[in-house]
Design goal:
five-stranded parallel β-sheet, 14 strands, Helicase, Ruva Protein, domain 3, Rossmann fold, alpha/beta, three-stranded antiparallel β-sheet
Length: 450
């Protein structure tokens, strides 16, 4: 059975049973997945177009799950020869000599996948093959097919071959792929041999480069049956789910970390707003890896704070968001007109994310008495060296603060989570211009605007 027919058969079974084709890929259920299912059912070679961090490689690598678990090949074959239809010289000779007694091996589906990151120095020998001088030195003639050393594409015969960042291949190498896609054969050093390869070719590319004006030759572009556009998460909930799935465990030793859901939303909203900001270079994209890295660094900063304070439980706070500068700077490109203002722009994005989540989550009708207490002279200090208990003690000074805080924590009365919610409320009131905030010292101070 051809590999595309094998993929089609197993995809049909998965679709009929209502099973997801790929595990761990979120946010594509109504957009990318229907297009990919169509491509598999049509038996197409596929190119995924999208910016960095859009799960293109994960989807491509997961295609092997749609292959049969085991596949028989002629023993010793370098290109997974079908015992009933051998194509290499080694396999043809073995079947001719032994017939039905020919020895076979079994290849697992995970080994039926080949991948190459396209780089300008990639050669035809890497992808297709080359004459092996060692085999020639052993006494074989150059005209002997057995002198060939097969490249990655023939070695993935009866499997899936992926090329990441396809436009980065030199044009002469792209030309070499035309035969693989159209004629399903390869030519090596002018050899008069034909290897009818059975390969599904999958590629990824940046939309900026995958154009007639970019670095892709038009004939190769025309050979892919389906072109599928990927995208970033369309909503905050999906981004939060991806962060939870991908982020490494935060707790370290004796310190337990609880990430409040409103802090998760701030991280996700920050990424979403960066993707819409005119001050951020959108051509390079704002990867979901940014959200994952920010999630991890926020937890790490909270742990460091807890270790210094001697606390065993900790929850990230708004004051920990200053740590995002390190995990964001390398993943977000600021427009050239804004050079020199990177830190200010990132801080503006963080503040906008906090305000957005505050307006969405905080019960505004409960805040009037809180603001009144500050106008009557209450002062609150926040910062890395402020223990959770000191922030929770504000309930004694401002009893009206307790209700909105518990609404945010969902009734969780852990001191660390309560402290995080208190600081979030104070920052939200400041950004809403209902409290003043003084950050001139090592601590931030909130007070009334009167």
């Amino acid at each position: 059975m051809p590999v595309k027919e094998e993929l089609r058969r197993n995809a049909v079974a998965a679709i009929r049973d209502g099973r997801p084709l790929f595990e761990g890929v979120m946010g594509y259920e109504e957009t990318v997945m229907p297009q990919l299912e169509n491509a598999l059912l049509a038996g197409h070679d596929v190119v995924f177009l999208g910016e960095r961090g859009q799960a293109k490689t994960r989807i491509i690598r997961s295609l092997t799950n749609l292959l049969d678990e085991w596949m028989p090949i002629v023993s010793g074959s370098e290109i997974n020869d079908d015992p009933y239809d051998p194509v290499s010289r080694h396999a043809r000779d073995a079947v001719a000599a032994h017939g039905d007694s020919t020895s076979i091996d079994w290849v697992h589906r995970d080994d039926r996948f080949g991948e190459k990151l396209a780089t300008p120095d990639t050669s035809i020998a890497d992808l297709i093959g080359e004459v092996d001088p060692i085999k020639v030195a052993e006494g074989r003639y150059l005209s002997d097919e057995l002198t060939l050393h097969y490249g990655l594409v023939p070695r993935t015969n009866r499997g899936i071959f992926a090329i990441n960042e396809l436009p980065d291949l030199a044009e002469r190498i792209q030309v070499g792929l035309l035969n693989v896609l159209e004629e399903r054969d390869v030519q090596i050093r002018g050899y008069k041999i034909r290897l009818p390869l059975d390969v599904m070719l999958v590629a990824s590319a940046n939309p900026e480069d995958y154009t007639n004006r970019g670095r892709i030759i038009t004939p190769l572009k025309d050979r892919f049956g389906s072109q599928i556009r990927t995208h970033y998460p369309l909503d905050t909930d999906t981004e939060v789910s991806i962060m939870r799935q991908e982020a490494r465990a935060a707790s370290i030793g004796e310190v337990s970390v609880t990430m409040p859901d409103f802090m998760e939303e701030i991280i996700a909203t920050f990424s979403q707003q960066a993707r819409q900001s005119s001050q951020v270079n959108q051509r390079s994209g704002v990867s979901v890896r940014l959200s994952v890295s920010n999630y991890e660094i926020l937890s790490a900063n909270a742990i460091r704070r807890a270790l210094r304070a001697g606390e065993r439980e900790v929850a990230p706070r708004v004051s920990d968001l200053d740590a995002l500068a390190a995990s964001t700077s390398g993943k977000v490109e600021i427009e050239s007109l804004e050079e020199g203002r990177e830190s200010q722009i990132l801080q503006q994005l963080v503040s906008a994310a906090v305000l957005t989540v505050y307006k969405d989550r905080a019960p505004g009708e409960m805040m009037r008495e809180v603001v009144t207490a500050f106008e009557e002279g209450v002062i609150a200090h926040v910062g890395e060296d402020i223990p959770s208990g000191e922030l929770v003690a504000l309930f004694n000074v401002i009893p009206a603060l307790r209700a909105p805080v518990l609404a945010l924590t969902g009734g969780n009365e852990s001191p660390s989570v309560l402290a995080s919610a208190v600081e979030f409320v104070l920052e939200g009131l400041h950004l809403s211009r209902r409290l003043n905030k003084d950050t001139s010292g090592s601590k931030a101070t909130y007070r009334g605007r009167g």
